[in-house]
Write a structure and sequence with these properties.
There is one protein chain. This protein is elongated. It has one domain. The protein is an all-alpha fold. α2 packs across α3. It contains 4 helices and no strands. The N and C termini lie far apart (about 45 Å).
Length: about 70
């Protein structure tokens, strides 16, 4: 098993929480922890808002940069 410090660092990755929730549902037949799923949802929402605002800011020049 992983040391608690390493586990906390790994769990900062949102994909690790999604994989853990999938394992709990499919293998353990348990309902995943709501806090972990909320972390992923909030982080994804924040990243989407930042990405959308940056895209809107650069929208006129986006095609030229590609």
């Amino acid at each position: 098993m992983l040391e608690p410090v390493k586990r906390k660092i790994i769990m900062l990755n949102p994909m690790a929480r999604i994989i853990q929730a999938s394992r709990e549902i499919l293998i353990d037949n348990n309902v995943p922890e709501l806090g972990g799923l909320m972390y992923v949802f909030i982080l994804a929402t924040v990243i989407m808002i930042i990405g959308y605002s940056l895209f809107k800011k650069q929208e006129g020049f986006f095609v030229e940069k590609i």
